[in-house]
Amino acid sequence: MVCSDDEDLLQNEDIPELEMGFANIIVVDNLPVVPPEKYEKLENVLRKIYGQLGVIREGGLWMPTDPETKKTQGYCFIEFNTPQEAEFAMEKTRGYKLDKSHIFAVNMFDDFEKYMKVPDEWAPAEIKPYTPGENLLKWLTDDKARDQFVIRAGTFTEVYWNDARRAMPELVYQKQYWTDSYIQWSPLGTHLATVHRQGAQVWGGDDKFVRLMRFLHPQLKLIDFSPGEKYLITYSSHEPSNPIDTHRVVLNIFDVRTGKVMREFKGSADDFTTGGNMGVSGVSWPIFR
């Protein structure tokens, strides 16, 4: 299951890909060119937009200025905590319309170096040998036809065989700091999902639980699978800046196999209230039935 960034570092295992070169930096182009007295206002606008998509590091937003005119040059660099947050911010704000004259063009900082290294002559792609993936249904071949169940105790998460004949569960796998919030089986038992501050992850495999895919969704609160396990629905709600407003809700539908966002829904909590079992901030859950 998924470990938080801090817990991964403490445990020194499954360390996420943090601070790998400049992979956590994006370049936002086509910004307004403003004089020094409007610099702070533009910076605050950018922080408001991108602060909702990830954690901007301290001093991580920089707009270069012209040495002579002191005006900004129409682009900025934004450094996030993780490459996943940076990629998510890039995907969500490409083509963002700030006003009629300024539509964001956003790229990963690392992409510039990659494009500079494109060879002048074409070469065929290297064909990698096939390697079989994890057998996600291995548990169905258990000779005792046992089911598995998962429990959490303190900071530990444990998966057991349910051995009714022995009246004693058999430990399959144990991991500390596996999730920040809760864990959930997929409907057919193919995946085990964990919920974290920055998103969800799904796990599975033969003899141990291997991370299969990450799904980036900052401030994630709830998840659900489609009945056939093809899609993962993620949910978050955000406190309104105005106390009289309702919570802002974000719903993403991911392809479980590829991790790609298939659909995204945003709105107030009132837009998603349909009755039934109430989840977070008055929104019924599961949202799709």
UniProtKB/TrEMBL annotation:
GO terms for molecular function: RNA binding; translation initiation factor activity; translation initiation factor binding. Residues 24-111 form the RRM domain. PROSITE patterns: RRM. One of its GO terms (cellular component) is eukaryotic translation initiation factor 3 complex. It comes from the Eukaryota. SMART domains: RRM (SM00360). The keyword Cytoplasm applies. InterPro entries: EIF3B, eIF3B_RRM, Nucleotide-bd_a/b_plait_sf, RBD_domain_sf, RRM_dom. Keywords: Cytoplasm, Initiation factor, Protein biosynthesis, RNA-binding. This is RRM domain-containing protein. It comes from Aegilops tauschii subsp. strangulata. The lineage of its organism: Eukaryota, Viridiplantae, Streptophyta, Embryophyta, Tracheophyta.
